[in-house]
Amino acid sequence: MRPLNEREIRASFVNCSKGEAKRLAVPRDLADRPWDDLDFLGWRDPAAPERAYLVAESGDALVGVVLRRATPAAQARRGMCSLCLTTHTDVSLMTARKAGRDGQAGNSVGAYLCADLACSLYLRGKKDAGPGGRLHESLTLPEKVERTMTNLAGFLEKIG
Ligand SMILES: [Zn+2]
Fold first, then answer.
1. 98 CA distance to ligand 1 middle (Å)
2. CA 43 / ligand 1 centre spacing (Å)
């Protein structure tokens, strides 16, 4: 994806208040992010590990969502990320408040995601998910990326 700056990241959030978008922790190392290898930008708040954020390109626009990580189980459990289909022990149930009135009414959407939101790097083999993490597939990388982005678009659509 193209490199993003802090201003456009803050302006992209669809499921939190403007005040929250202004205050949330945007990564300080944006210039050093591996943008060429990223299909979307995801990060966790280092000061609040249950908070995570995801920003994706949607046509010409950006869509950012605030995610909340369900309390990690005492024992690590293997799971499959619903976006990139990587299986590892660091998969978490993340919930996103829905945008607009639905969200104000308390509705949210949940999905199992790589807890570090580094799906793009697992797909490219730049981050290792451990033995058995990636199924052997005959799909090419662009096909896997496309599938991941289709899954992501579906998740973002549910958030609204
Ligand atoms: Zn993933």
1. 21
2. 12
